[in-house]
Amino acid sequence: MICCKNNKGLIRFLFTFFIAVCQIFVQAQTVVNNGASIFVTSGANVVIGGDLVNLQAAGNDGNISLDGNILLNGNFTNNASNNVFINIEPVPNGNVIFKGNLPQSINGTSPVFFESVDLQKSDKELNLNDCRIYGSLRLDAILRLNSNRLILENGNPFSINYVSKYILSETTPSMGYGIIQWNIGRNIGTYNVPFGSGLDVTNDLNVTLTTRTSAWPTTGSVSFATYHTDQMNVPYPQNVFTLNDYNPDAMADRFWLVSPDFTEKPDIDLVFTYTAPDIVFNSSIKTDFLKGMRYNPSQSTWEDMPPKGLSDIDNLKVSVLNISNNDFFSDWALISSDLEPHPWVPNSFTPNGDTHNDVFLTECLGFEPVKYQLMIFNRWGGKIYETEDIKKGWDGKIDGSSLCPQGVYVWKVIATSDNGTEYKFIGRVSLVK
Fold first, then answer.
1. CA–CA distance, 346 with 334 (Å, rounded to integer)
2. Is pTM, for the whole model, over 0.85?
3. 251 in Cβ contact with 278 (< 8 Å)
4. Mean pLDDT over the full length of the chain
5. Quick one: pLDDT at residue 238?
6. How many percent of the chain have pLDDT more than 90?
7. Around Cβ 86, how many Cβ atoms within 10 Å?
8. Do 54 and 107 contact (CB within 8 A), yes or no?
9. Can you say how many angstroms the Cα of residue 103 is from the centroid of all Cα atoms in its chain?
10. What are phi and psi of 300, to 5 degrees?
11. For labelling alongside 219, which of 151, 300, 313, 387 has CA 20 to 30 A away?
12. Residue 245 gets which letter from DSSP?
């Protein structure tokens, strides 16, 4: 081992620095790993009072094999071309503890692949994109993502150990989202992402996702983000270009992003936590009627799935349960369903027998009809189907016999409310084989 210390207390590692004694405490002010290999064995604790900087020298990237703990009071900077930590076990046993009383940041030119991370005390700033955590993230501080993505490689629902404070994702779309990407694989469980608005000291924008399918064919990830908007709900999320006919006054002033990346998606439940300022300025919102709505980018509409959910006024939460994989898309908002009656219908359906979107169903939002009639017409105006059962819908067949050709059909709904008011709605639906 060769090291030198200058007058400013800077330790420069020129060769391998090996810590092999259990329960040893090695203390340094600022550590610069100048192209060397550092081994921190199990039980060892390296306490760094200042910064930890990883560099490249003579063509060699500095690296750390971590089986013990690094307790860091300053910033973490990686200016080498690697990801710093090597020999990450299937069950990671190394831990970097950010315990500074002053704000700390993760900086540099290359993302860092951590084993486990423990955030304590002061605010933490993430200034590197695509950093990864393979073990667990213990959160006891404010973590500001600053438009960067943090990737959690551990699919265990408990790999975020929440103690206090929150993760701040809030940005505008023009700046890019601060994203938590959780590589959940094929795990069944409940995943809590402790987002916060910054208006409080807690996770007042917590998002909960529960996977419900017993198994789905492919592994994948879910990316989470939130951001606040103005009272007209602009700017929209990236890739969202319309609110359709929705009144922004009836919507919460915030969007939630829960974006799946699977070849075939799981069925899920979602719980959104909102803040009082999200709804206080919107005169049309009645909190006990709040429901979740989502945008379908393939059809450029919010209207192919009716808003659904259960409002918990006391805890400022909306639970949206039993979301099928066919309805699992990225962009979500909250809307008051105490509106003028409006039919909610899909733009298309696929009666191919795969159990997904096989039946054309309508829903009347705002009242429960005491009388209901659905009629389907072909392009020549001929009636080919009719039902008075709102739960039955149309299976794409002519009076239950042969399947109709692919094409556009006209639907008509006549619904009567309990006060005797009759509503008539008409529209088009595409039958796709």
1. 19
2. no
3. no
4. 88
5. 85
6. 64
7. 15
8. no
9. 26
10. 55, 50
11. 300
12. T
C-alpha angle with apex 67: 64 to 72, nearest 5 degrees? Answer: 65
DSSP state of 277: H
CA distance 292 to 310: 9
User: What is the bridge-based pairing of β-strands 52-57 and 30-34?
Assistant: parallel
Q: Strand pairing partners for 422?
A: 416
Lowest mean pLDDT among 67-76, 127-136, 280-289: 280-289
DSSP codes joined into one string, 279-314: HHT-TT--GGGEEEEE-BTTTTBSTTS--B-EEETT
From 10-24, 217-231, 252-266, 333-347, the region with the lowest mean pLDDT: 10-24
The token duo for 67 is 């089986």
Report the 3 state secondary structure along 113-148: EECEEEEECCCEEECCCCEEECCCEEEECCEECCCC
Count other C-beta atoms under 10 Å from residue 79's C-beta. 15
Distance CA 36, CA 183 (A): 31
Read off φ and ψ for residue 104, nearest 5 degrees. Answer: -120, 155
CB-CB contact of 152 with 159 (8 Å): yes
pLDDT digits (tens, 9 = 90+) for 278-324: 998 877 788 888 999 999 999 898 888 888 999 999 999 999 999 99
Radius of gyration over alpha carbons of the chain, in Å? 27
For residue 325, CA distances in Å to 188, 215, 258 come to 14, 12, 13
What's CA 179's distance to the chain center, in Å?
Answer: 7
Q: In sequence order, what are the residues at sequence separation of 6 or more whose Cβ sits closer than 8 angstroms to the Cβ of residue 281?
A: 231, 253
- Residue in the block written with tokens 């039902």: 387
The string of pLDDT tens digits covering residues 216-273 is 888 999 999 999 888 888 888 888 999 887 888 889 999 999 999 999 999 999 999 9
Q: Does residue 311 contact residue 289 with C-beta atoms inside 8 Å?
A: yes
pLDDT at site 398: 87
Beta strands, E only, 41-198: 45-48, 52-57, 60-61, 63-66, 69-72, 76-78, 85-86, 95-98, 104-108, 113-114, 116-120, 124-126, 131-133, 137-140, 143-144, 149-152, 160-164, 167-168, 179-182, 190-193
pLDDT of residue 25: 56
